Amino acid sequence: xxxxxxxxxxxxxxxxxxxTATPLESLALITSEIGEAANExxxxxPTEQFSEELADIVLRTFxxxxxxxxxxEAAMLAKIEKNEATGRKGRLI
Length: 93
Ligand SMILES: [Mg+2]
Known about the structure:
Layout: H1 2-16, H2 23-39, H3 50-67, H4 72-86
Helix pairs in contact: 1-3, 2-3
Bound molecules: magnesium ion.
Magnesium ion binds at residues 33, 36, 53, 56.
């Protein structure tokens, strides 16, 4: 399912010509979406727009990964497994 979403979003990015951003520019755009999400909950409970801004963060992240041929689904699963194996060892939290 995740790959379906990623590929659909990628096709839209290509169709719109939104594939020229450098990795650093893409990270800046992800940061801007985080700011938009923060704005949607700055007065307390998240607004109705909050979920859309969260989606923007994830879609921009998926788009960056796809543009760099990073298998983000595999990377996420590997990170979950790493987290599960590590637990809180070596962490201050
Ligand atoms: Mg947004």
